[in-house]
């Protein structure tokens, strides 16, 4: 028997196959929802079977009531045993409800929970596959809204479908069969209510769907702005801008409130209209069956039976119509996550060649690149050859393309023109995950997560020995810091390493890089935000890190690039000078002036 992990993996594969289909975006949300549950059709079928068994009193009890009333009213033609038999059957079926309902919910819940977990897992994996450009365009708060709120709405939609919609349909069909079997005239009268229910849904469908879509977009916008506000909290507090921060979100909250209010009114009008129409039909049904009994065409007990059956039909149709706004909201969430899952804006590179060992020879061949939504080139016609083990420094004013060069080497973006070649292999042919496991990146703002120091250093490396770990710690000048912590390597640090200083965070990032034993190092202004003492410690750690490895350093301070083999001076996306520190200091007065200004800063 498959365990839950295997089942979840198969669900993910099914979902991936579904959303990799190029035609999925032409499929409506109902078909997508049905596809999500394809693998669980057996569980759903069993759940419905046990539901029908546990629901048998709904159809049996009205017949029992009619039989008892008819037996009482015509005692000369019926015995007392008939009453006891009917009551006994009813009690048995009512007690059977307990185990049947439990089994019904068990199968139903398994199907829903597996799809919910599989959908979230597929979304998380899709996020890892999407390009950095896509992530740049889609704000983090909107991503969270899709993974959390939309999947929750789909789970609620599934549960409402299986606990309300399908049961109502089963009640409706079962009751209609019994009524038609008893009297086709009464059955036809009862069926007259169905067109009115369908008409009600049709009249309100478009307005409810449109308002749900607008409400969902306002939710995503609010989630994005709240996420941004939380990120900006240190800046906001430091400058006393709390009121400004709140005022930026207030308009979004107002729009969300107004849209929610509008949606509530539409749903209330829909629900009240449905109720009024159906109640009128109930009175007409009572009058009609009462007239038949008055004419002697049916017995008195049958009036009670038909009224009870009518209430079942009425309740079923009312449930179906009332649940429609919930279904519309859930289907909009299906549409929302489908937008992400069908996106073909994937990882820029899709090569398959795995390199077991990276030497570090890198060549830029006439590279030109520009970001989305801009007409100006960030890099223009860049050509550069770097030998294995060489240390290259990139300097220049902000916006000159230094960090973009690093992003291209990581493979975050792909140049529109030219090629990047690693050890003789074009990046287009490389399998990115293998290649990136051979490089290390240390950024200006270290990215740490809430966990232990050990977890942050060994992130993604489950088999690092303590000896390897402490070698990396010593190389990063981090031993004294860790030994001063209450639990050493097992000390938990806050989100983003909030309990550490800037220098400590940078040295943890460097230790993370060293422990991977990379062949290519990318340092993006790794010391620019540090004080002199922290910079000295980090710089010493960096010198150990880059020894014998191909290194690219984006920096402003002379102390960081003085010992680089070559310094590349960039301006407006092109290379304007190349040379050693001494050569450039002698040759470029502009370079000297620029560095002096940065040193003064």
Any overview of this molecule?
The protein has helices at 4-20, 29-36, 41-54, 56-73, 80-129, 132-137, 140-182, 184-191, 193-231, 233-238, 242-294, 300-322, 324-341, 402-410, 432-436, 453-457, 466-475, 479-483, 502-514, 532-546, 558-561, 581-587, 589-600, and strands at 362-369, 379-386, 391-396, 417-422, 425-426, 439-442, 451-452, 492-493, 520-524, 550-554, 566-571, 574-579. 65% of the residues lie in helices and 10% in strands. The model is unreliable at 22-27 (pLDDT under 50). The chain has 601 residues and is an alpha/beta fold. β11 and β12 form a beta hairpin. It folds into two domains: 4-341, ABC transporter type 1, transmembrane domain (ABC transporter transmembrane region fold), CATH 1.20.1560.10; 362-600, Rossmann fold. Strands 6-9-10-3-11-12 form a six-stranded mixed β-sheet, with helices on both faces. The longest helix has 53 residues, at 242-294. Keywords: ATP-binding, Membrane, Nucleotide-binding, Transmembrane, Transmembrane helix. GO terms for molecular function: ABC-type oligopeptide transporter activity; ATP binding; ATP hydrolysis activity. InterPro entries: AAA+_ATPase, ABC1_TM_dom, ABC1_TM_sf, ABC_transporter-like_ATP-bd, ABC_transporter-like_CS, P-loop_NTPase, Type_1_exporter. Belongs to the ABC transporter superfamily.
């Amino acid at each position: 028997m498959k365990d839950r992990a295997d089942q979840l993996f198969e669900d993910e594969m099914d979902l991936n196959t579904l959303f990799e289909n190029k035609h999925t975006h032409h499929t409506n949300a109902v078909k997508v929802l049905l596809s999500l549950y394809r693998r669980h059709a057996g569980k759903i079928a069993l759940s419905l079977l046990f539901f029908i068994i546990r629901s048998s009193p709904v159809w049996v009890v009205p017949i029992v009531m009619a039989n008892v009333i008819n037996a009482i009213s015509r005692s000369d033609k019926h015995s007392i045993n008939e009453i006891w038999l009917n009551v006994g059957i009813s009690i048995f079926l009512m007690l059977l409800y307990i185990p049947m309902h439990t089994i019904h919910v068990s199968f139903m819940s398994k199907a829903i929970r597996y799809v919910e977990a599989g959908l979230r897992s597929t979304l998380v994996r899709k996020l890892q596959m999407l390009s950095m450009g896509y992530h740049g365009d889609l704000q983090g708060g909107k991503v969270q809204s899709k993974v959390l709120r939309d999947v929750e709405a789909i789970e609620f939609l599934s549960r409402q479908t299986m606990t309300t919609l399908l049961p109502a349909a089963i009640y409706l069909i079962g009751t209609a069969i019994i009524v038609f079997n008893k009297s086709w005239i009464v059955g036809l009268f009862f069926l007259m209510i169905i067109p009115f229910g369908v008409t009600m849904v049709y009249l309100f469908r478009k307005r409810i769907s449109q308002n749900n879509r607008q409400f969902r977009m306002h939710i995503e916008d609010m989630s994005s702005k709240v996420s941004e506000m939380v990120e900006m909290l240190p800046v906001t507090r430091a400058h006393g801008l709390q009121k400004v921060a709140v005022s930026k979100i207030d308009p979004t909250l107002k729009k969300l409130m107004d849209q929610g209010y509008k949606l509530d009114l539409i749903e209330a009008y829909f629900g009240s209209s449905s109720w009024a129409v159906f109640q009128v039909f109930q009175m007409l049904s009572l009058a009609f069956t009462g007239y038949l009994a008055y004419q002697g065409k049916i017995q008195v007990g049958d009036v009670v039976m038909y009224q009870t059956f009518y209430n079942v039909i009425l309740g079923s149709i009312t449930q179906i119509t009332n649940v429609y706004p919930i279904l519309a909201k859930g289907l909009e969430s299906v549409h929302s996550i489908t937008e992400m899952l069908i996106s073909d804006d994937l990882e820029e590179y899709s090569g398959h060649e795995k390199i077991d060992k990276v030497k570090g020879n890198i060549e830029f061949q006439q590279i030109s690149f520009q970001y989305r939504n801009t007409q100006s080139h960030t890099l223009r016609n860049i050509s550069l050859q770097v030998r294995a083990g060489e240390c290259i420094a990139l300097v220049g004013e902000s916006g000159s393309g230094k960090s973009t060069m690093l992003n291209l080497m990581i493979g975050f973006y792909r140049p529109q023109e030219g090629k990047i070649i690693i050890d003789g292999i074009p990046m287009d042919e490389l399998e990115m995950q293998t290649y990136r496991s051979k490089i290390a990146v240390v950024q200006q703002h270290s990215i740490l997560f809430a966990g232990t120091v050990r977890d942050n250093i060994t992130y993604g490396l489950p088999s690092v020995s303590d000896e390897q770990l402490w070698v990396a710690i010593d190389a990063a000048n981090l031993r004294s810091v860790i030994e001063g912590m209450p639990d050493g390597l097992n000390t938990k640090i806050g989100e983003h390493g909030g309990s550490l200083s800037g220098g400590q965070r940078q040295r943890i990032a460097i230790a993370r890089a060293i422990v991977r034993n990379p062949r290519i190092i990318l340092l993006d202004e790794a010391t620019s935000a540090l004080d002199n003492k922290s910079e000295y410690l980090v710089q010493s750690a960096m010198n150990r890190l880059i020894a014998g490895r191909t290194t690219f350093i984006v920096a402003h301070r002379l102390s960081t690039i003085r010992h680089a083999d070559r310094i590349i001076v960039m301006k407006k996306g092109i290379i304007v000078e190349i040379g050693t520190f001494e050569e450039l200091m002698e040759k470029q007065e502009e370079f000297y002036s620029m560095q002096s200004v940065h040193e003064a800063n």
